[in-house]
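Data card: per-record layout.
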Amino acid sequence: EREKKEAAEKRSSDVTPKPVACHGAYWQYEMDGHWHPFSPEGNDQMFQAYKVYISDAQNGRTASIVAGGVERIVDFQLMTQMHASTKTVRQIRIVAGVPQQWVSAPAALLTQSDHLASLYVKVLDSRLVEQVTQVLRSTGHAWDKSVPCSHMRGATIKSIHRIENFPLWHRYKARLAAMREDHTRYNISVNPVDLDLDGREGTMSSSQRVLDCGDSLAWDVDEKILLHGTSWDNANSIVMHGFDHRTCTRGMYGDGAYFAGAACKSHQYTCSKHSGKACACKSERTLIIARVALGDAYHTSFTRHGDRRAPKRRQASGNHDSVVVNPGPITGHHNPIQLHQEFVIFGQEQAYPSFIVQYVP
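The structure for this 361-residue chain is written out next.
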């Protein structure tokens, strides 16, 4: 009889629907060396019980989970479940659905509050620090001693923090899923955007995998690692709530959130005294290294003052996902030649702040 029940349980697991995420996380149980998702009903109960355990480990250690008419006793301290009738014990685990290099425990992620310090994790990895140093010193026109961008050749990192914002991360991933649905609906093929068009060392291209936090960039929505210069206060707001394109009202290529592939370009927006200039002031600056989903990008050679979204597609329904400006002639700009490559998005969840870098030029 026991063998029959276990066989039925295994057959049931084979047809179990995809796990329903609770803010992006979900529960699994181990059987025959493989991990299987809890049913949606069981998953919801597990999260309710786990939150009780987090707040009161002594009294919330065990819980009764009833799904599909079967009762199991869960022990969150041992991370096991026991079938109430057969007494079969299996291992359980929670899958947070976050990048591999994140170090925050699932319990901490699930209970994150508005306390900023809990979202910042200091980076000590020498390989990553070296790569970010290269991004600061060798992207864009930093090599050209005749221009202000050369101030970045001597940039020194003061600190790097990885941002582990669980709700923001999963809102970003949901946005990527929505973009995929849009592309499928309208039969859109995404053409990847080339990086380092305003540089000569290929540093941003070679940095993509190093700076992905162990979560591979999604090629199907042309996910890129890009840069955003700002103030420390603004960075804190972005860490908490994400990039808000609504705060931009005078964008040259639309009122969106702007990113660059050259640190010397982002550097122009880090000084309160010289906004728009790559100055040499020795004050501490803030650079955000972000994941940005460019998707179906629109390449423009004209300024686009006042645009609140990317242009409509010409050969398909809907709008493009972003605006890309490459170096070269530009119409409508006070400078007829665009020097740096720029990227503009118009969706609040279309970028995620992966790292906050404090540096001095």
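Known properties of this structure: The two ends are 73 Å apart (CA to CA). The chain is about 25% helix and 25% strand.

See the next section for split statistics.
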